[in-house]
Design a protein that fits this description.
The chain is α/β, with parallel strands linked by helices. The protein is built from 7 helices and 7 strands.
Length: 233
């Protein structure tokens, strides 16, 4: 039987305190543009899927999303001074890139089964420059098991030099474009066919994100004809 995912009181307090502070910081650094707020489900579980360039996407989303959602982050963030404190206090969920960890997977499923939204990057790693990389199939597995809708979000402006530019008064623009919620196609497949279908579903999520981004941010998803089911197997 699945466990109910609960957020500790101290984590809830930190989120209540930190989210408006971070909104203020982002506004001080530069203008913020958000479109598609009407596409956010009013309640229930869903997966927020974003493009991932730098360290700034997650704080940007978590600060401005209408509810405090759960978030997945690379485990190495928990080892970095400063960043580790923030992710621990926020209650982030660490995951090791490329590793299958059943305990972490069950935690993510429990989040969604407990009717909580979950923020994740299908790419699994930062690209450091505008231009999306190939998605990992794990996100499709998670959506398949939890049977939840996906909210695609395209982020523009979160380059590695965003903070430096903001501190030097250049007022860099941040954009969050929220797309329409959709569900992945389901199928009863086995073996290589199932792996290929999951990669195709992961790519489908990325294509929805790419549709919200300017061409230079779309990366390999600007030309989806070049994608093959075998690329990430």
């Amino acid at each position: 039987m699945a466990e109910t995912y609960t957020v500790q009181r101290k984590v809830r307090f930190f989120r209540w305190l930190a989210r408006p502070i971070f909104r203020g910081i982002f506004h001080l650094l530069g203008p913020v543009k958000i479109t598609g707020r009407e596409n956010i489900p009013p309640h229930g579980a869903y997966l927020i899927a974003i493009n991932h360039i730098s360290l700034f996407e997650a704080p940007f989303i978590l600060a401005f999303w209408p509810v405090a959602c759960e978030a997945v982050g690379a485990a190495d963030i928990w080892q970095r001074p400063g960043q580790s404190t923030l992710v621990k206090y926020y209650g982030g969920i660490p995951i090791h890139r490329g590793d299958y960890d059943r305990r972490v997977l069950e935690t993510l499923l429990n989040v969604l089964r407990s009717s909580r939204p979950l923020l994740i990057s299908p790419e699994g790693a930062r690209s450091h420059v505008p231009g999306m990389c190939r998605a990992e199939p794990g996100i499709a597995y998670l959506v398949e098991k939890a049977d939840v809708p996906v909210v695609p979000v395209g982020i523009v402006g979160t380059t590695d030099d965003y903070l430096e530019r903001g501190l030097h008064g250049k007022r860099p623009l941040l954009e969050m474009h929220i797309g329409r919620t959709f569900r992945l196609p389901q199928g009863v497949l086995e073996g290589a066919a199932r792996r290929g279908a999951r990669q195709a579903n992961a790519d489908l999520i990325m294509k929805h994100i790419a549709a919200l981004l300017p061409l230079e941010y779309q990366g390999i998803y600007a030309d989806p004809k070049g994608l093959t089911p075998q690329a990430n197997e």
